[in-house]
């Protein structure tokens, strides 16, 4: 009997020791790794499950045992809300710390580039702005702006490929303040600007129907809008000047808009001379009837809306006031226009 009791006691002690050893093994395996070295960058891809994430954390030396981490996740009912992204994690982080950060999406903030394209900028000016922001040569961006190659929005917007165009994407790069990832490629940067144009157009109720009612293509609309953008500073005058442009087009008159000639010059002039107005180009609206081949700048939303919904009037002429207001005097006839020119000169 004593021998039996001794055997039972030994078995109990062995089982207790085994259980204790197993418990210690599990407890130890769930403890944070000893802190050592700098944080480790770990990227959780979209679609990765908690099991794959656990294996990745073990592989990167963040946790001791992925099996224990998986078990812990099931016990605390976590792991279904982990967010994809790149994390800076450290050996020594506890299970709860790791879970909390991945639930919150506490990812590494990517270095961003912020740049602003003012309304009325030309493609050349935009390229220079982007080149400065990304420490590139303007030609890198100009090449894409001229060809439109590989840009999805080119098809969506039906941007024409016309040999008469100075720059294919002129007028389509929406003027806005942008914040993009520093690692963005030139193609991604330009695509973002084209996408912004689409978004802005979609803020105009029934813009496609309005365009169809006017019998215009988007390219023609943006061309008119770009003329308004370069000719007008006072917002309330934009629809009126757009209406004057349509009045001239409807009558078959030449537009004779200075901004189209300025567009052909390497450097803007404060005043155009007779020789400037004689330059041979499809963009010169003093020589060519109708609209130029395409936009001459990047119009803002106000100018686009003005071109889409112009103010109806019987005006055909306008001249800039010289009083510093940057407004215009409007006329129905050429005789009235000449009088307005003299009147504008009398402004202080």
Structural class assignment: mainly alpha
List the uncertain runs. Answer: 2-22
Radius of gyration (CA) equals 34 Å
User: Can you tell me the number of structural domains?
Assistant: 3
Average pLDDT figure? 87
Instruction: Return the string of H and E elements.
Output: HEHHEHEHHHEHHHHHHHEEH
Oligomer: single chain
N- to C-terminal distance: 125 Å
**How do the strands of the widest beta sheet line up side by side?**
1-2
Q: If helices are DSSP runs of H or I spanning 4 or more residues, what is the number of helices? A: 15
Global outline = elongated
Helical residues, percent: 40-55%
Main beta sheet: 2 strands, antiparallel
Q: Tally of extended strands?
A: 6
Site (Important for catalytic activity): 231
InterPro entries: MLTG-like
Catalytic activity: a peptidoglycan chain = a peptidoglycan chain with N-acetyl-1,6-anhydromuramyl-[peptide] at the reducing end + a peptidoglycan chain with N-acetylglucosamine at the non-reducing end
EC number: 4.2.2.29
């Amino acid at each position: 009997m004593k021998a039996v009791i001794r055997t039972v006691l030994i078995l109990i002690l062995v089982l207790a020791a085994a259980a204790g050893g197993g418990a210690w093994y599990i407890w130890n395996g769930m403890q944070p790794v000893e802190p050592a070295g700098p944080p480790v960058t770990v990227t959780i891809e979209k679609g990765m499950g908690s099991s794959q994430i656990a294996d990745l954390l073990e592989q990167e030396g963040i946790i001791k045992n992925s099996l224990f981490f998986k078990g812990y996740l099931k016990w605390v009912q976590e792991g279904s809300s982990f967010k994809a992204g790149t994390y800076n994690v450290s050996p020594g982080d506890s299970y709860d710390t790791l879970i909390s950060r991945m639930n919150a999406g506490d990812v590494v903030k990517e270095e961003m580039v912020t740049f602003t394209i003012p309304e009325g900028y030309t493609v050349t000016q935009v390229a220079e702005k982007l080149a400065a922001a990304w420490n590139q040569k303007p030609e890198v961006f100009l090449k894409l702006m001229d060809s439109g190659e590989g840009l999805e929005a080119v098809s969506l917007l039906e941007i024409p490929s016309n040999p008469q165009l100075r720059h294919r994407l002129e007028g389509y790069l929406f003027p806005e303040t942008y914040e993009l990832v520093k690692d963005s490629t030139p193609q991604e940067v330009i695509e973002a600007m084209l996408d912004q144009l689409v978004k802005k157009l979609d803020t105009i109720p029934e813009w496609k129907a309005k365009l169809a009612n006017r019998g215009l293509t988007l390219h023609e609309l943006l061309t008119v809008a770009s003329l308004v953008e370069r000719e007008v500073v006072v917002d309330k005058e934009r629809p009126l000047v757009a209406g004057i442009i349509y009045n001239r087009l409807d009558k078959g008159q030449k537009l004779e808009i200075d901004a189209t000639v300025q567009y052909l010059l390497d450097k803007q002039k404060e005043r155009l001379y007779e020789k400037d107005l004689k330059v041979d180009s499809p963009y010169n609206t003093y020589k060519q009837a109708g609209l130029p081949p395409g936009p001459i700048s990047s119009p803002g939303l106000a100018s686009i809306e003005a071109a889409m919904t112009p103010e109806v009037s019987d005006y055909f002429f306008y001249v800039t006031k010289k009083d510093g207001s940057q407004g215009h005097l409007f006329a129905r006839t050429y005789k009235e226009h000449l009088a307005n020119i003299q009147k504008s000169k009398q402004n202080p």
